[in-house]
Amino acid sequence: MIRSRAMIMLIAISMLWINGVAAQESPITWSLKTDPPARPLRPGDTFTVKLIAQIEDGWHLFSTELRAEAGGPKPTRITLPGGQPFELAGKIESPAPKIDFNQAVGMEVEFFEGTVTFKLPVKVSPDAAPGRQKLRAQVKFQTCSDSLCMPVSTAVREILIDVEAKSVTDKKTGE
User: Fold this and answer.
1) What is the DSSP letter of 67?
2) Rounded mean pLDDT of 84-104?
3) pTM for this entry
4) What is the CATH code of the structural domain delimited by 26-163?
């Protein structure tokens, strides 16, 4: 009887701790920015969007190149979800990550601390409608401290991009 009460109490305390960890705010704040283009963007144009991670002290974000080993931390994955007039136009750039042994996961990992900026090459879809269009970037990530790992999280950030109508050329002259 005493053992079963102790076991129930242990399970209850564990569940409270797990729920408390899961309910915490992420130690990473994400933002999405772009520099104003030199001219209005048209369908087919490419430009760069910056996805910025502001990482709280004592925490780190795993790199996009991290090998996902069984039981290990999950790499950061950045996508532009479908159903929008924008698509990735190449490889996402990021600074070189730090490499170190992490006690929480028991292995050597690639990670970022402080602030990290990912540069996303983006192409305006050929069939993009003119006007203000919403660009959505999605990032799946895991963050750890030296002693604790948060569950994998997803963040979606949006910005508005002005798209100009396709240029109309005279079919007879090509001008």
Assistant:
1) -
2) 92
3) 0.79
4) 2.60.40.1250
